[in-house]
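Rotation project, supervised by the postdoc (A.L.). Task for the rotation student: set up a whole-complex structure prediction and record inputs and outputs verbatim in this book. Inputs entered:
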Amino acid sequence: MKSKIITAIVALVIVALMGWGYYSSAQHRAHGHTSELNPKETIFEHLGDAYGWEVPFNHSVRIPLPIIVWGQDGLHCFMSNRITGGETYDGFKISTSEEHHGKVVQVMDDGSEVRPWDFSITKNVAGIFIAALLVIGMVMALKRWYVRNGMKAPRGGKGFLELVVDFVYGDTIRPILGKHAPKYAPYLLTAFFFILTMNLLGLIVIFPGGANLTGNIAVTLVLAVLTFLITTFSGTREYWKEIFWPEVPMALKCPVPMMQLIEVLGMFTKPLALMVRLFANMMSGHMVVLVLVLLIFIFTNLFGVGVGVGTSVFSVAFTLFMLLLDVLVSFIQAYVFTILSTIFISMALVEPHHKEA
Amino acid sequence: MELFTPEFGLVFWMFLAFVCLYFILAKWAWPFIIKSMEERADLIDKGVAYAQEAKSHLDNAKAEADKLIAEARNQQADILREASKMRNELIEKARGEAADEANKVSQAAQVSLEQARKEAEKQLRTEVGDLALQIAEKVIRKNIASDDAQRALVDQYLSEVETKN
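Outputs recorded:
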């Protein structure tokens, strides 16, 4: 009974939104805004970063975010709503040129565009801050529970959080790292929860979410570099020995350092794989959802409203499926990043094992 | 392609945000959370072991209690037996002592009675002798000249009388 009512309400809301969408799109056209649908540009716009944060059902209003740039003449700070409409403010504008498309550039006296050092709080940066604050909030809430309730098991959301912590720490980090676990656990747990929060935030389409954070290579780059640095700096003698003087036939390592080359390459490909895996998984999930939604508009443009409505039913069903799959992928990728980082660190902590062999 | 070139500003902020997050959580949250969880896991493990031990104790407890009760009963019976034995001994001893005492008392009484009788006899004899002498003196005052001879005769007669009795 209750579930039937909820289903009916959800169906009504979807139908109403569809009707409203068609109405507003018709209004748009009636006012002469006949912008061509460009699927590629739309997809990359949604996958990429932006100055300002979109709000639902509106194409022009954006939540303004601070722009911080270090140009030719020093530091400039202003809110993004001064330039997102295409204006030039203080010598800065969002470029439409091929080279710096969509980025803030400084317009020089001769009309050329120079990219300044851009420290702007873009949509993705704001998203990162929101994710970080959420992680701090969640983890501190769990800690406060232990401070207040001692040995009592947490309930509800905190209980779930504890379950995840135990899964990541108790079942993954501790068995792999053994006695080194407490030293590396804070990094690995922080990385796991940060990635997970960013992944899930990316799936929420409106304001606090919607930024394609882990589907952005800069974010995964930082995480991968941190894992690389930790791995490299905790390398034992044995680890370096296995890289530069591995136990292989002399011909493979002496005149031509074949094995050394492969091993050194391996040092870099491991974090590189971490970076690309997370980035590609999350980005592709977003991309599939975007393509599915865009299919509605493509078919409407090609065959008219009737086919568009038919497609929307199909698209919404598949989008829902993809988003649910992405929730799973969010967990899996966060976990995979953590477990692989753990394994790389444990490989760097290797002790001599030839005696027992 | 733009998608594959990391933006400098984003890398900078991401690095900053992550490092801050790491230091905050590594200092104030993770060690404490991990410690609390491990302590609780230990506590639960110990609790389970303790409960199992307590259960086995409880199972043994009835048998042990029965054993104790049986032991106590045996002791009780021993003590009672001992006590009754001791009581009988005491009574026997007291009875013996009392009999001895009574014997002694009755013997002493007999001795003193004998003595008293002998004394009384002696006195009576003297008195009877005197009396007989006086009577005889009065009867035969005139005939009897030697007082001493007469007296020996009387004494002799008296002894005869006595032995006859």
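Student's summary: Residues 77 and 83 of chain B are 10 Å apart (CA to CA).
Supervisor addendum: Chain B has a mean pLDDT of 88.
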